[in-house]
Design goal:
It is a single chain. With 111 residues, the chain is mainly α. It has two domains: 58 residues, Multidrug-efflux Transporter Regulator, Chain: A, Domain 2 (Orthogonal Bundle), CATH 1.10.1660; 40 residues, no CATH class. This is HTH merR-type domain-containing protein.
Length: 111
Amino acid sequence: MRITEAARRLGMSPRMLRYREALGLLPPVRNQGAHRRFGDEELAAVAQGVELEKRFDISPAELSFALRVLSEPAVAQAVRDLGLRIGRVQAPRRALDFEKEKALRLLQGRS
């Protein structure tokens, strides 16, 4: 189906559907160079994205960035570094640190 019919079925404007496509929130076009045709798979993907946006109270742009973080290691690392710096993400504990803490607890228990 064409974009106008797909948008009507999804309860949004064709412009909003094009915006979601520009953000990368739709499956890739099967035939490169061809006009996008919407089938059940594309409609289900858009509906799932809209449901996530509502459930987590986020915008399509925020969902698009979350997908980028999951799919691009350099972006994931940059976001992780920021999270560590501002205290929203904890640094992974190294095995040596765990063993050191365990030994200190055992020594404190003896005194």
